[in-house]
Specification:
- The structure is a homodimer.
- By secondary structure, chain A is an alpha+beta fold.
- Helix content of chain A is about 35%, strand content about 20%.
- The first copy, chain A, has 2 domains: about 5-170, Jelly Rolls; about 180-260, Arc Repressor Mutant, subunit A (Orthogonal Bundle), CATH 1.10.10.
- Chain A has a 4-stranded antiparallel sheet. A 4-stranded antiparallel sheet of chain A has the order 2-7-4-5.
- Chain A binds a DNA duplex through helix 7.
DNA sequence: CGGGTTGTTGATGAGGGTCAAACACGGTGG
DNA sequence: CCACCGTGTTTGACCCTCATCAACAACCCG
């Protein structure tokens, strides 16, 4: 598992909210300037199945990029499903609501990841996607994407794979919620984040959590207090160092041990 | 919500294991005699997007039907992904395993439902599918299905929808596992089963559980004792009558109340 | 610099897990 | 036919993890 060569600067050093947004700075504020060919994420995104020379096709597919400030919603439960979204910068959470009002976060989504797949079936969103910080999302009208799939079998297959991956991911989370202790859940969560940051070219050992303890707790089926206490315990045991949202994993082996993988 | 006209006899009266297998009796034991046009389930199955006169296409698509006796596995974790399965008779559970050996059931699958969607991404099954009782599953080679999708946009769209539906389902279960009490989980579970039986033309009020308390517990993130106790409590409160695996929901309203939907 | 949000830590208790005993039911074989 | 066994279920007693309530500290931003 080699450190990505793309890691020019320590993620640790990034001020909050800048860890990813430097990418978007480069493409400026315009909503129209969507250009997959030059996108920093094209290798980890939906577009990565298309050979570079055909990336122009995506520039037509992706009509625009939406900018959302922290707390703004990409879509709400009940909204008509019209498009999928690829996180371009920042990050999102998807939130499910039980009719009684209790909320639970069902996923965190980093750049390059696809959001909104659950709504294809009923043509309505049943969850809500909220920006964890100032973020950008590329809008992919689903009808157009499906049509493009007609011409590009590779793209179609990739879509199937991404849907399938979401199912696997959710089933993993179900396992976590069903059988793991608080320690195991948190260790698993941190290691998962670590892998995803690494995939994006950041340090897998040091990163900035872009969600609150409460949000982590909601995702893991724990209270914020338990999250905080468990983090403290991990720190006491030397597995990691945590200061606010800055995390340094000092002993990934031990974390894997406690995570049970 | 009208009772289905297909309900000729009370599900209650069926001896165990016969609730669904009468269907398969009719098609005999042969592995080759797969014929969607005459299938009892064609209206609730993948095939339902294709007009009746084109159902013949499916008879070529679905190469065979596998017969499995109780406890037999349809596929194992690690198996190469080659086909999806539609439950034809009986029922299946999908089981996930944490490396440490702890198991958790991630889903129960009744006739007409699709199994194996999680494996498209990695081309390997990461879970295991086991027959809950003597069962049959139609085998749909995925490569062929994808190819057929090229010609039938309706079919392709339906596939996307089914994948998406699985995601929704899993996210619902995550909510359940993350925030619900034991009572809420069990009530939700029973109501969900009820709906699915109704969809198949059986009574939504009286049915036979085809899984053990332990399996229910595993699915809901509870122990078998808690499942048993909670069922007893529901019975004491008059919400249902339970004798072994025979369940009669006597007060669906109250159950919905406690389920919180 | 102050008020709001977020995070830490402690004390207490409840929901549900664990362990244990006994029962119900469906075979199986004498 | 009944004794026997194994699996599945019920119920009780006890205990542990994590939720709840509460106070306080740290940080952030205008």
């Amino acid at each position: 598992m080699s450190m990505s060569a793309a890691l020019h600067q320590p993620a640790w050093a990034f001020p909050r909210n800048d860890a990813f947004s430097f990418v978007s700075r480069a493409v400026a504020q315009s909503r129209a300037a969507v250009n997959c060919s030059g996108c920093y994420h094209r290798k980890v995104c939906l577009a990565n199945v298309v050979p570079d020379r055909e990336l122009g096709m995506f520039d037509e597919l992706i009509s625009m990029r939406r900018k959302l400030s922290r707390g703004a919603t990409l879509y709400r439960a009940g909204d008509r499903f019209e498009a999928l979204y690829v996180v371009h910068s920042g990050g999102f959470k998807t939130v499910g609501r039980l009719t009684h009002g209790e909320e639970k976060i069902t996923g965190f989504h980093l750049p390059g990841e696809l959001v909104g797949l659950d709504a294809i079936d009923s043509a309505k969103h049943s969850y809500e996607a909220v920006a964890l910080e100032d973020s950008e999302a590329c809008v992919i009208p689903f009808a157009r994407l499906e049509a493009a799939g007609q011409k590009f079998p590779e793209l179609r297959h990739q879509l199937f794979r991404l849907l399938s991956r979401d199912i696997s991911r959710d089933q993993g989370l179900m396992l976590l919620l069903g059988v793991m202790t608080a320690e195991q859940r948190l260790a698993t969560f941190l290691l998962n984040l670590s892998r995803r940051y690494q995939r994006l070219g950041f340090s897998p050992e040091r990163f900035v959590l872009r969600m609150t303890r409460e949000e982590i707790g909601s995702y893991l089926g724990l209270t914020l207090e338990t999250v905080s206490r468990t983090l403290s315990r991990f720190q006491r045991e030397g597995h990691l160092a945590v200061r606010q949202r800055d995390i340094e994993l000092k002993n990934m082996g031990a974390l894997m041990e406690t995570a049970g993988c």
